[in-house]
């Protein structure tokens, strides 16, 4: 299953009989590429995820398909793991171009509604940052996103909404569509149990931890949702992990266990920061190390500082749900305090 050291290298790489991994470029994103998976059927190709709707990505997709004797017009269906632009927008655009059917989790509808309908200031994520006590960062985020308004023609509604866990017929394959909210509200993974494959989207990534709470319309407890979804995937057989970002790896169970342990550790760090006197999510985020290089929040750019603050917010809200801390809203900002252990 070795495909070289650079998983972002263009091409179409077989990962199982009739299944190919196709990395597509993300030229302004630190992730560098997104893996789209092409599944052969008698009637054409089914793609898990679609990539980002930019010219460079579609050209690379067309070139990769030619290497396995297919064209974009051979795509009959997209199964999209979630609504983030590097997964959904090219599926939406190509789906309209060639008449391919597009499916997406129904939990993504609130975010799509916001994107398609526009929103009044402040930007939804700027508003979340303000509640997290990060007013300056909220202003920086609003200024950044004001210059990058989404092209709403890339964000059509899907042909079908996935709701709940179900089995999908994909040619001769049966894919178990598993609802895995957390990274986004409507995230799905697709398990081919007969072939021992897990199309994991961003839910389980081999080298990085998926962002939590970074969506226009997040749920009330995204980290709790994510951990529950990890438990659902852990209850499946141990499958070959086909991630959206990173190389194919042999054990879904091993990586799920690492992700669960990571968040247990981060929850403990958040609890300790609150106990030491940090009262807002932004203040807690300032006390935590970030990335494998253990950088400080102040050293991150606006985008990554936003991810870090919103993820800290999600950790604190899970601690509230677990009754380990309490929160109180003070002038629009949530303040946290460790729950008293006194009887």
UniProtKB/TrEMBL annotation:
Residues crossing the lipid bilayer are none
Span of domain Metallo-beta-lactamase:
33-245
Q: By its UniProt entry, which InterPro entries does this protein fall under? A: Metallo-B-lactamas, RibonucZ/Hydroxyglut_hydro, Sec-metab_biosynth-thioest, WH-like_DNA-bd_sf
Q: What name is this protein filed under? A: MBL fold metallo-hydrolase
The organism's taxonomy opens as: Bacteria, Bacillati, Actinomycetota, Actinomycetes, Micrococcales
């Amino acid at each position: 299953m070795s495909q070289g050291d650079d998983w972002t290298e263009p091409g179409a790489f077989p990962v199982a009989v009739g299944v190919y991994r196709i990395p597509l470029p993300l030229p302004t994103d630190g992730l560098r590429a997104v893996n789209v998976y092409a599944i052969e059927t008698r009637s054409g190709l089914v793609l898990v995820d679609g990539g980002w709707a930019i010219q460079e990505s579609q050209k690379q997709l067309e070139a990769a398909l030619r290497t396995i004797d297919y064209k974009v017009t051979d795509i009959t269906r997209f199964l999209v793991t979630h609504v983030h632009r590097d997964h959904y927008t090219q599926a939406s655009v190509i789906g309209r171009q060639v008449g391919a059917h597009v499916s997406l989790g129904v939990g993504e509808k609130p975010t799509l509604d916001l994107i398609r309908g526009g929103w009044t200031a402040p930007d939804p994520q700027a508003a979340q940052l303000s509640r997290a006590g990060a007013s300056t960062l909220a202003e920086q985020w609003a200024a950044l996103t004001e210059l990058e308004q989404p092209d709403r023609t890339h964000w059509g509604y899907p042909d079908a909404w996935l709701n709940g866990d179900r089995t999908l017929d994909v040619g001769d394959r049966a894919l178990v569509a598993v609802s895995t909210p957390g990274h986004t509200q409507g995230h799905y993974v697709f398990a081919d149990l007969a072939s021992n494959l897990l199309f994991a989207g961003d839910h389980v990534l081999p080298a990085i931890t998926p962002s939590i709470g970074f969506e226009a319309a997040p749920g009330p407890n995204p980290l709790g949702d994510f951990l529950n979804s990890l438990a659902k995937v852990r209850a499946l057989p141990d499958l070959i992990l086909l991630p959206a970002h990173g190389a194919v790896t042999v054990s879904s169970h091993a990586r799920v266990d690492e992700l669960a342990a990571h968040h247990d550790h981060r929850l403990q760090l958040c609890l300790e920061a609150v106990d030491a006197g940090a009262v807002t999510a932004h203040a807690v985020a300032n006390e935590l190390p970030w990335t494998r290089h253990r950088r400080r929040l102040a050293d991150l750019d606006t985008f990554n500082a936003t991810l870090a603050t919103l993820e800290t917010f999600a950790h604190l809200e899970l601690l509230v749900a677990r009754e380990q801390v309490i929160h109180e809203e003070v002038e629009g900002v949530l303040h946290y305090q460790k729950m008293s252990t006194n009887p």
